């Protein structure tokens, strides 16, 4: 199904967008009359990796805030998994649905070890009573080992998270989202502040996650080398709307995009 046919779906309660993991239609968010999002429409398919770029103030963070329930849109539809209306849900409910967000700055528990951070992420997925009674099963232990390998921290389970490099903290936090088995991962400028080697390793990590069709990934990023390394479809936001969409080469050759970036 193409984006155009999806946009033809009727609005209002009870709408559905089959075959999509994230469906954003005509979303507007205003702050004191200023439109941070202006009838924004965007569709992410299951298993897709999408990169979002755009100049400062384009609305990228506000879009993430709307998807995760931090900000309520003035109008528009936001559906998860083709039918779940995210505009009616709290941030906790949305996280429990399987939508995980990683903010630009790492927010790991610095005084806990790498292993304990992953263990905690697993516990947070559970209800309070079972958390109190929680003991790691062999299977869960195995899952933590697996995730340690995926995020490149296999040899650091006992290290305090506070002693990790900036890049390693970012990978640990991605590992925490994996422990929670999130299906839609929203990554906000994951390579900001990383060394070149860390940036390359992060691109490999994201491409690795993308191999698993269970994961859909939306990556907001300013670093064009990194965006190129991901090789994904790129959406360009500007003034709260989609300005262009396509391969990185295609959007970089788009006159409107060039004007927005160079005209500033
Ligand atoms: N709570 C708020 N109150 C008033 N204006 C806001 C608020 N949040 C965002 N804005 C404005 O909305 C616009 C979009 O901001 P947003 O942070 O979403 O952009 P962005 O694309 O994430 O920018 P950056 O790349 O700099 O992070 C900006 O002009 C910003 O000043």
TrEMBL record:
Gene3D superfamilies membership: P-loop containing nucleotide triphosphate hydrolases (3.40.50.300)
Record's keyword annotation contains Transport: yes
Name of the molecule in the record: Urea ABC transporter ATP-binding protein UrtD
Tree of life domain: Bacteria
Pfam families registered for this protein in UniProt: ABC_tran, BCA_ABC_TP_C
Annotated ranges, domain ABC transporter: 22-264
Keywords: ATP-binding, Nucleotide-binding, Transport
Gene Ontology molecular function: ATP binding
InterPro entries attached to this UniProt entry: ABC_AA/LPS_Transport, ABC_transporter-like_ATP-bd, ABC_transptr_urea_ATP-bd_UrtD, BCA_ABC_TP_C, P-loop_NTPase
